[in-house]
C-alpha cells in the first residue's frame, strides 16, 4: 500500500538469537502488524536489524512513544523507516558491557604487539566481525534510503498526477469559457444585426410615412385651392344674378 512507509519502523541492534516469530510477537504487543522483515545474510543468519510494518498508524506511534526498548540487555534502536538522515544513530550491534569494549580494545592493542598465532587469529576474527557489522550497518542505511527514495518517488508521482489532472481540468474550463464566449459573441452579433435591421426598417417606415404625409398635404393644398376656386366662381355667379338688369 502507498502509506506503508508511514506505518513502518526500523529496528536495529536486535540480538542475533531473536528470530522472526519472537520479533513479531514482541512487536504485536504495540499493535497488529502486517509484516516483519528480519534481514538475514546469505547463510540465513540474522543481521541484527529488521523492518516491521504495523496494520495501523497507532501501533507505529505506540512503539516509538515507549522507547527506550531493551532485549537481552541490549538497547534496541527504533526509528521510522524513512528516517535515515541520522545515520550515526544506526550503530552496529555493540557489546552490552562497556568493560567488554575496554577489554576488546586492550586485546586489540595486545594483538598488535603480539606475534603469536593465537592472538593474530583473535585479531583477524575481531576485524572480520567488525567488517560484518559495518556491512550490516551499510545495508541497513541503504535499505532505509531506498525506502525513503521510493516514498519520495511515489509522492512526486502522485503530485505529478494531481498536476496533470488540474491541468486537464483547467484546459476543459478554458475550452468551456471559450465556447461560452463564442456563443455570447455570436448572440451579440445577432442582436446587433437585428437592432440595425430594426432601425433601418423604422427609418424606412418613417421615410415612407413622411413621403405619404407630404403627398397628403399636397393633395390637401390642391383640394383647398379647388375649393377656393369653386367658392369664388359661385360668389361671382351669385353676384351677377343679383345685379339688376338695366331697362332699355
UniProtKB/TrEMBL annotation:
Signal peptide: none annotated. It is found in: Nucleus. One of its GO terms (biological process) is regulation of gene expression. Residues 7-83 form the RRM domain. GO terms for molecular function: RNA binding. This is RRM domain-containing protein. The keyword Zinc does not apply. Keywords: Coiled coil, Nucleus, RNA-binding. It comes from Rotaria sordida. SMART domains: RRM. Its main location: nucleus. Residues 153-187 form a coiled coil. One of its GO terms (cellular component) is chromatin. Residues 89-111 are annotated as: Disordered.
